[in-house]
TrEMBL record:
Transmembrane segments: 63-82, 94-111, 117-141
Superkingdom of origin organism: Bacteria
Keywords assigned: Membrane, Transmembrane, Transmembrane helix
Name of the protein in question: Uncharacterized protein
Lineage: Bacteria, Bacillati, Bacillota, Bacilli, Bacillales
């Protein structure tokens, strides 16, 4: 299997990419962390309400103290699976993952007040949009540092 496939499995659930790489202890730790953070932050309920357009309920349901751990675990697990399967050999190839984790974490903090076209985006949609500038800035900085 190639690195991109491991990356995609890690997007599905942190830890799956590690299991496919044969890093069983790391994979189990990432899966357990994902489950603990998911349960403690009420993330499934947040996702449910967000997908059903009940943004106010999703914001009220979220436990921000736990939810802010999620982006770092999520993006680190993606990077780790990608790296361990042979991807990321270029210098600074971790930067898009790092900046995405940072931007999504900040996005979570501001998600209860950011509106687009007068619509409150909430705790799922706004942080997801924050991945775009995170990846973009990470790729730009990588390009600058490797030039």
């Amino acid at each position: 299997m190639e690195a991109k496939e491991r990356l995609i499995w890690s997007i599905a659930l942190p830890g799956f990419g590690q299991l496919l790489n044969g890093k069983y202890l790391k994979g189990i730790v990432f899966i357990l962390l994902e489950i603990i953070i998911n349960v403690q932050s009420n993330f499934n309920e947040v996702i449910y309400y967000s997908f059903n357009g009940e943004i106010g309920k999703s914001i009220h349901q979220a436990n921000y103290q736990w939810l802010m751990f999620y982006p770092c675990i999520y993006f680190f697990a993606m990077w780790d699976a990608f790296k361990d399967s042979g991807g990321g050999k270029e210098p600074y190839s971790y930067l898009p993952f790092v900046f995405s984790a940072y931007f999504v974490t900040v996005g979570i903090m501001y998600s209860d007040r950011i509106k687009m076209f007068g619509i409150l985006l909430g705790i799922v949609w706004f942080p997801m949009l924050c991945v775009i500038p995170g990846v973009g800035l990470g790729l730009l900085l990588k390009r600058i540092l490797t030039s």
